[in-house]
Specification:
The protein is α/β, with parallel strands linked by helices. The chain contains seven helices and 16 strands.
Length: 275
């Protein structure tokens, strides 16, 4: 039995608001659709009505989608949040807030349905994210073939829009997950945050150096990773501790396959997490 979701669409553009409400209303998982044309109206509505999910436009006059999301985050039972925007510029911040998904305009019905399906799954499991043990291997379907990426082969992770890119010696692979979630579930494998848009696997780090173009970077066989000033000291401490435990360079000593930087272009992929 599919859960019956009560959802809220917060969008200042009337045509987009009406389109999303109509699409959501036709989905079997959705029982009721509420709408608001600005952030202030949404906050007032949320004071009297409980909802399961909120689809928030990021750029709105007055209270924007990020502001509304922060209000939702302090509720005793916060709804699932999906951000809707015409730009990828806020993707990292959105997932940092805890968004379930990040949709780009114009809205594609299949992407909207995918977001609703994810919300329904989270609600049916009490909001629990996929268990960490399921993330030792990531399965990625490209349409013509299926690629299995081992967590231990991932040298660093880069946030890109509503995906993250897993960088390995063989190239880059996209998967729709938040950087914050991977930071949590892969921490035990030595992944640490080094920049607001990057995680790095400590055992793959070869060196730290300062460059004229990017500042401090951490070198891996798959390429250099920018390290922000905020995270630099913590990374140095992590590398020192790994060296003391003889864990530094353990994976990098015999890298699996030729060293390669992924090209900027990426074949059309429909990534998903392994079951």
């Amino acid at each position: 039995m599919k859960p019956e979701l009560k959802v809220l669409v917060v969008e200042d553009e009337a045509s987009t608001r009406q389109e999303m409400a109509a699409l959501l209303g036709d989905m079997p998982e959705v029982a009721e659709v509420l709408v608001a044309d600005n952030g202030a109206t949404a906050v007032r509505l949320l004071g009297t009505t409980a909802i399961d999910a909120a689809f928030l436009d990021i750029l709105m006059p007055g209270l924007d989608g990020m502001d509304v999301a922060r209000v939702l985050s302090v509720l005793s039972e916060p709804p699932s949040i999906v951000f809707v925007t015409a730009s990828e510029a806020h993707a990292v911040e959105a997932f940092g807030i805890g968004a379930v998904d990040y949709l780009l305009k114009p809205i594609r019905p299949e992407r909207l349905a995918e977001a609703v399906g994810r919300i329904a799954q989270l609600r049916s499991t009490g909001g629990a994210a996929p268990p960490a043990e399921d993330m030792h291997v990531v399965q990625i379907d490209t349409g013509r073939r299926t690629v299995f990426v081992k967590r231990d082969d991932v040298q660093f992770v880069e946030a890109q829009g509503d995906y993250v890119r897993l960088h390995t010696a063989d190239g880059g692979h996209l998967i729709r997950l938040s950087l914050s979630y991977l930071e949590e579930v892969w921490a035990s494998a030595g992944f640490v945050r080094v920049h607001r848009g990057y995680l790095i696997a400590i055992p793959w780090v070869r060196d730290l150096r300062v460059t004229s173009s990017s500042g401090l970077v951490a070198g891996t066989p798959a390429g250099d990773v920018p390290v922000s000033r905020r995270h630099g000291r913590h990374l140095r401490a992590q590398l020192l501790e790994a060296a003391r435990r003889d864990q530094l360079g353990g994976r990098a000593a015999n890298p699996p396959g030729p060293t390669a930087r992924p090209r900027d272009g990426e074949p059309d992929q429909q990534p998903r997490q392994s079951p």
